[in-house]
Write a structure and sequence with these properties.
The protein is an alpha/beta fold. It is built from 11 helices and 8 strands. It is globular and about 55 Å long. Bound molecules: adenosine monophosphate.
């Protein structure tokens, strides 16, 4: 079988560690690293013998070419930050390494509708791109443990579905969201927020906290309406506010019959789109 990993140095390093019986942890990122990413890296370094962090801005998951173009990139700074953590392997592949011309990297699995709601409804094709790149990276790195952030709740839910469907031999670890002092979830996109919107965007975390404290005290529709008002009156434009079952991502109407409920918000702060979530019941 042809081996499409052209990065022989990476392959050699990983083979060496595997031959010594070492476990490999993997943290895929799109760079522009912040404390949230570094938390994943540290969690991997704690649990696994060797950690690989990839930096690859994946074009196939951007439905808006302008968003792809504007995505912050700073490889030298990222490398310096990763070196400070003591991380062993940085993998920053080029586009042809991930998507060789002679290889079909599309993943043909049914995502059970998980990709159609929430982010999927507003970013058509986004999760096909995410599944494609994560599967490809897993094929190259072949880690024992994959680390992902709770910040992208729908993303890790879909990747868990991918792992279960294809029976991939990798364990998924989800790491809680790292936040700034005012509650704003750390994100590479925050760099592009004006100081004013950075402050205003704290309303997202406040609203998630409100969803959590209100769940079960009044009808879901009232909770959502009030949450929408909070976001709007703070000067953000909400795209969605949903309370869903954490397994199926389908809307919850009667909270008592669900064991696992998550609140998710997407909102525009000026021209920056932010997402965040909180587990409301588990
Ligand atoms: P990205 O570079 O945005 O694709 O993110 C790479 C990984 O870091 C994903 O698994 C994200 O869920 C995770 N991540 C992003 N932001 C945070 C955060 N604030 N806290 C924890 N993990 C995060």
């Amino acid at each position: 079988m042809q081996n499409f990993v052209h990065n022989e140095a990476l392959e050699r390093k990983l083979e060496f560690h595997r031959s010594k019986g070492r476990t490999i942890g993997f943290v895929p990122t799109m760079g522009a690293l912040h404390a949230g990413h570094l938390k994943l890296v540290r969690a991997s370094m704690k649990k696994c013998d060797v950690t690989v962090c990839s930096i690859f801005v994946n074009p196939t998951q951007f439905n808006d070419p302008k968003d792809l173009q504007k995505y912050p990139r700073n490889l030298e700074r990222d490398k310096a930050l990763l070196k400070e953590t003591g991380l062993q392997i940085i993998f920053a592949p080029g586009i042809r390494e991930i998507y060789p011309k002679n290889l079909d990297t599309t993943v043909h699995i049914d995502l059970a509708g998980l990709d159609k709601t929430l982010e999927g409804a507003f970013r058509p094709g986004h999760f096909e791109g995410v599944v494609q790149v994560v599967k490809r990276l897993l094929d190259i790195v072949r880690p024992d443990v994959l680390f992902m952030g709770q910040k992208d709740f729908q993303q890790f839910t879909i990747i868990r579905h991918l792992i279960n469907t294809l029976k991939l031999r990798v364990q998924l670890e989800v790491i809680p969201t790292e936040r700034e002092a005012g509650g704003l979830a750390m994100s590479s996109r925050n760099e592009r927020l004006t100081r004013e919107f950075r402050k205003k965007a704290e309303v997202i975390f406040e609203t998630l906290t409100y969803l959590k404290s209100s769940l079960g005290t009044k009808p879901i529709s009232n909770i959502r309406d009030e949450a929408l008002k909070k976001i709007t009156s703070a000067g953000l434009k909400p795209e969605y506010i949903e309370l869903v079952d954490g397994h199926t991502l389908q809307p919850v109407n009667v909270p008592v019959i669900h064991h696992y409920i998550v609140g998710l918000i997407a909102a525009w702060a000026g021209d920056i789109r932010l997402i965040d979530n909180m587990i409301l019941k588990e």
